[in-house]
Design brief:
Elements (H helix, E strand, L loop, with lengths): L6 E10 L2 E11 L4 E5 L6 H9 L6 E6 L2 E2 L5 H8 L2 E4 L11 H5 L1 H6 L4 H14 L16 H13 L5 E5 L7 H18 L2 E6 L2 H7 L2 E6 L2 E7 L9 H8 L11
Parallel strand pairs: 3-8, 3-9, 6-7, 7-8
Antiparallel strand pairs: 1-2, 1-4, 4-5, 9-10
Helix pairs in contact: 5-6, 6-7, 7-8
């Protein structure tokens, strides 16, 4: 008997007026695995993640976590579900008015009502796990470089020991070396927690490094899904054009 996927979307549709973003999206992630969804801008990647998080409500379809339908959950059930999730937002999305450690401990203090000193100790430990010293804990986000901010955001994403972590364009805006550092930290953090991860990116170097499996989304549907090692021999001309970064091919840029 096949194991129940940790996360499963079936037949998910979402439109904003006449803009049909998701058109019957089907995707599943096995427990403890890393799935990276690639695709160009405006293909539905972010709307997919926002649908799982409940930020966006799909028009129809099914979204299950551990086999439990989330589309019909009440507020109390969704609050409990959210405790399973960690999120690394594009750009980091740190709170400017909070110190670094308070950013990392936000979910512990606000979500789990943990004592501040205990939360601070955990935050400093998580910062050290992403290569930042305890000295950084008392600084504010504006005092950090872009790469350091991204590390703080990663520490925050894993601070509550989530079961499922979402990574939204984790290497955007970083130089190639820092991007590779972040990729390594994502792998270490995820494997250390035994977490299931769903990432969205258009950075193929990142996708290859952090993924067990890769799926490509195009015009609101998954058009290819397979092991990361098979991406170069997908046999799909859309996938080939995207990963090779070619202007010529079936994917036409909207002008």
């Amino acid at each position: 008997m096949a194991a129940v996927p940790k996360l499963e979307l079936k037949g998910v549709y979402k439109s904003f007026g006449n803009n049909h973003v998701l058109k019957g999206l089907d995707i599943a992630v096995e427990k403890g695995k890393s799935l990276v969804v690639i695709g160009g801008s405006g293909t539905g990647k972010s709307v997919m993640i926002k649908s799982v998080l409940g930020i966006v409500r799909p028009d129809k379809g099914s979204i299950k976590v551990d086999g439990q339908e989330t589309m019909t959950m009440n507020d109390h059930e969704r609050d409990a579900l959210m405790k399973k999730f960690g999120m690394l937002f594009q750009g980091g999305a740190l709170f400017d008015s909070l110190s670094v450690w308070e950013n990392v401990a936000f979910g512990l203090i606000q979500g789990q009502k943990m004592d501040r000193q205990q939360a601070k100790d955990i935050a400093i430990s998580k910062l050290q796990s992403v290569g930042l010293s305890a000295r950084v804990a008392g600084l504010f986000p504006a005092e950090l470089s872009g790469g350091m901010q991204k590390r703080v955001a990663l520490a925050r994403a894993v601070a509550t020991s989530p079961e499922i972590i979402f990574f939204d364009e984790p290497t955007t805006g970083l130089d190639p070396i820092m991007a590779d550092v972040i990729n390594d930290l994502i792998v270490e953090a995820s494997k250390g927690l035994g977490a299931t991860t769903l990432s969205i990116t258009h950075d193929m170097a990142s996708a290859r490094k952090i993924a067990d499996n890769i799926a490509m989304i195009y015009k609101g549907q998954i058009i290819w899904h397979g092991p990361a090692k098979d991406i170069d021999k997908s046999g799909n001309e859309y996938v080939a054009q995207f990963i090779q970064g070619r202007a010529e091919g079936p994917i036409k840029m909207e002008v």
